[in-house]
């Protein structure tokens, strides 16, 4: 019993992260076809650990404790399941003979190749046969140790929706005989791209959603960064785009503590107290941005990281280098000519050349009508007309924006704009 | 002696909930240790044996049949039941159907 060891001082999210490691290793052992069995064994291992640790205190090396327990439980589970024909066919012959079973489990279930195993698990989760939504849910379930309830909460959707999504994904692994391996070199770029996209979505879900409390939001962002870091530090898949995405996430997350005031209201970039920005994260971001320059390609992550970098570097709002940012948006628009990017570009133009120029840029957006339900369009127009002192027009736009957002916190922000003194 | 009895519920906690439960236990033990109340404790595995009668018949105890299982115990220093019960204020598992059984260990102070 080590009385002074506080679990939160030892490792935040110890159980979640050990869950991810154990599921990866056991999926390597059982094969992705038996993902559910792997998760059952891990759940059982963690429950056993908890009932022991809560009385005995944390062991010196919780990870080693868990891996030993998981090995024993895996051997038991295999002995039980082996009698079923179908299961036997899905596992390696080494696990079928009682002679080689225990040594094979011992050989496979350890922490020696844990980074690699988690990376492989990531590629399994982002298998091309799955939808992006399923990929993100699977990453959260298997690698991040979220329960179905927690995933449903994160996506503001029902328990059954997530449960079905995961069920179908597991079925796909069986039907397509998905293997636990890194993609072939020829496929690597595409497969990494899919993984990065899932991580990017995970991060944005955390960053953009104002529907739920800070806790989940930060968890999602942290998990996305943890996953991306695994890719960044693996030599086999080390990829310039992964570094670019990592840089983008670092810069964005560095503003977390400054985004809301103490009553939970959103603070815009202009209003944020920049001394609250996390300098250490910005430094990490700069490191990854430099690493990302090693590649020959320029991805949207590079450009978005470039924009986030300019904001992170400016000592205050007035010193923002809008010229560089406009340059980034021009590049981004060339790669992805979408109305949303054009809208963001128009905001930069208004910073450089005034509100009237901004409105003009918005009016010239191609396919502007596709943004008609996007609350940031009227919110931006309201802001710009307010700057031009056309208050009635501005208020009409703010009111329109209020009807288009579900988020209470955003509605409140817009309401404040309407009632601000002229 | 504090004996911890937990109810076997259908749904296992998620890793994050386990983290929270663990955190609460650690701070409870920490508090008992700092107050000089904690003596020792052990977790108990489910299951067990009962040996009974002249024939010394060995049976599997009714340890897993019931809804409640004994998960472990602490020995603590307490002057009386009131104090022992008060020490259980921070026992973390009440909300998950857990209970604490408080028993007094018989001690006889013999002259040296």
Describe the structure.
The complex is a heterodimer of chains A (422) and B (112). Among the domains of chain A are: 321-370, no CATH class; 372-422. Chain A has 422 residues and is an all-alpha fold. Chain A contains 22 helices and no strands. Chain A has helices at 7-10, 14-30, 35-56, 62-81, 85-90, 93-96, 98-108, 114-125, 132-143, 148-154, 159-175, 185-208, 214-232, 240-253, 279-292, 300-313, 322-335, 339-353, 355-363, 376-387, 391-404, 408-419. The model of chain A is unreliable at 1-10 (pLDDT under 50). With 112 residues, chain B is an alpha+beta fold. Chain B has a single domain (2-102), classed as Dimeric alpha+beta barrel (Alpha-Beta Plaits, 2-Layer Sandwich). Chain B contains two helices and six strands. In chain B, strands 2-5-1-6 form a four-stranded antiparallel β-sheet. In chain B, strands 3-4 form a two-stranded antiparallel ribbon. In chain B, strand 3 (49-52) and strand 4 (57-60) form a beta hairpin. Chain B is flat. The A-B interface holds A 1, 3-8, 13-16, 18-19, 43, 46-47, 50-58, 145-147, 149-150 and B 4, 12-19, 21-23, 25-27, 29-30, 33-34, 38, 40-43, 71-74, 92.
């Amino acid at each position: 019993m080590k009385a002074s060891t506080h679990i939160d001082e030892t490792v935040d999210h110890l159980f979640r992260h050990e869950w991810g490691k154990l599921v990866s290793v056991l999926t390597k052992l059982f094969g992705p076809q038996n993902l559910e069995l792997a998760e059952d064994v891990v759940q059982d291992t963690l429950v056993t650990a908890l009932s022991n640790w809560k009385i005995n205190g944390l062991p010196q090396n919780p990870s080693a404790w868990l891996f030993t327990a998981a090995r024993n439980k895996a051997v038991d589970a295999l002995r039980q399941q082996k009698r079923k024909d179908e299961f036997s066919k899905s596992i390696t012959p080494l696990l079928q003979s009682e002679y080689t079973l225990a040594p094979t489990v011992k050989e496979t279930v350890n922490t020696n190749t844990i980074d690699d195993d988690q990376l492989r698990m990531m590629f399994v989760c982002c298998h091309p046969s799955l939808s992006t939504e399923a990929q993100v849910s699977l990453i959260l379930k298997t690698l991040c140790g979220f329960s179905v309830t927690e995933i449903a909460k994160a996506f503001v959707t029902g328990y059954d929706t997530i449960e079905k999504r995961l069920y179908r994904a597991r079925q796909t692994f069986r039907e397509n005989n998905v293997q636990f391996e890194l993609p072939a070199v020829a496929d690597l770029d595409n497969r990494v791209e899919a993984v990065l996209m899932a991580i990017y979505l995970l991060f944005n879900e955390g960053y953009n959603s104002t529907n739920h409390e800070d806790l989940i939001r930060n968890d999602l962002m942290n998990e996305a960064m943890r996953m991306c870091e695994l890719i960044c530090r693996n030599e086999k898949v080390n990829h310039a785009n992964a570094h670019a995405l990592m840089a983008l996430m670092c810069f964005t997350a560095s503003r977390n503590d400054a985004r809301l005031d103490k009553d939970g209201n959103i603070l815009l970039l202009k209003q944020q107290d920049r001394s609250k920005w996390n300098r250490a994260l910005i430094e990490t971001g700069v490191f990854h941005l430099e690493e990302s320059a090693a590649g020959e390609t320029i991805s949207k992550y590079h450009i978005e990281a470039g924009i986030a970098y300019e904001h992170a570097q400016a000592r205050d709002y007035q010193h923002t280098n809008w010229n560089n940012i406009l340059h980034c948006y021009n590049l981004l628009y060339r790669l992805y000519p979408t109305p949303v990017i054009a809208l963001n570009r128009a905001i930069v133009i208004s910073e450089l050349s005034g509100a009237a120029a901004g409105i003009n840029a918005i009016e010239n957006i191609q396919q502007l009508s596709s943004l008609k339900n996007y609350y940031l369009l009227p919110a931006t127009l309201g802001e710009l007309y307010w700057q031009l002192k056309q208050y009635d027009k501005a208020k009409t736009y703010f009111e329109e924006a209020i009807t288009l957002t579900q988020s209470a916190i955003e509605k409140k922000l817009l309401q404040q704009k309407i009632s601000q003194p002229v | 002696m504090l004996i911890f009895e937990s109810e076997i519920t259908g749904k296992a906690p998620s890793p994050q909930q386990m983290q929270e439960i663990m955190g609460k236990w650690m701070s409870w033990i920490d508090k008992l240790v700092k107050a000089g109340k904690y003596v020792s404790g052990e977790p108990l595995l489910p299951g067990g044996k009962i040996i009974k009668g002249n024939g010394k018949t060995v049976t599997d105890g009714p340890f897993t049949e019931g809804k409640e299982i004994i998960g472990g115990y602490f020995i603590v220093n307490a002057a009386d039941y009131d104090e022992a019960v008060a020490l259980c204020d921070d026992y973390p598992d009440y909300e998950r159907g857990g209970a604490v059984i408080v028993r007094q260990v018989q001690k006889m102070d013999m002259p040296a």
